[in-house]
Design a protein that fits this description.
mainly alpha, Fic-like fold, 11 helices, 66% helix
Length: 264
Amino acid sequence: MAQAAARAGSLEERVEAMRLVLARADRPSLAAYQERHDMSWIYHDSALEGVVYNFHELKAAIDNQVVSDTALIPAYDEIRQHKAAIDLIRELAEKKRLAMNLEVVKKIYTVLAPEENEGKGPLKYRKDMPLHRLYFHEISQPDKIGLRMRQLVDWMNAEDTKRSTHPVRLAAKAHTKMLHIYPFPKHSGKVARLVMNLMLLRAGYPAAIIHATERQRYYDALKAGGNAVATIVNEALFASTESAQRFIEEWEAQIREGRRTRPA
């Protein structure tokens, strides 16, 4: 328990140091950091799902460049939808009053997969058991998904849960529980991680971006349970604070050395 508290304390210190660095950065520096951060977020989160984009694809899609090769349209659309979902959770994180309910979860999903909600009535959960899935663990039978999702949000919002569980562990466990339900026909992993990061942002932490190099370890952690996933999330938060500070400090150093011009 003491060791866990020490780690949480050191994370709090890192988060505060990151806030101070970002607070002193000028607008162009922050914009450059935000763009790099979001591209990294989409790259690594997609790679966890087995989809690897290159820098040009990410940059062109985020900048809304004209697609010269029609074969790239699906990839560009998916990148843009992922970016829109990231923007959505940032917007939700700023709301003073936000109920973490099923409507929020479904809203995140429909931004990732707008075609799933086009004139088809109420959004529906997964209706089958996929034979070949990325996450190698047991998932809910389709007829149990609705009940288990309601139980999940009830657990997330329960005062006892919030009182007894550190916000980082709570976010990691909520994500793990959602992936064991696997509620949607696609993007369940992305939705679960976006919900986790919404909870982290609302608690004052940065987003936890789980790197592609941790893919197998992440899958193994999902099979092992919430504690193993919480460890990976905690490490990802440390990495997020370090990368933010490093980016801004390197950017400022380039300006001081004359390798980059500070806009007027």
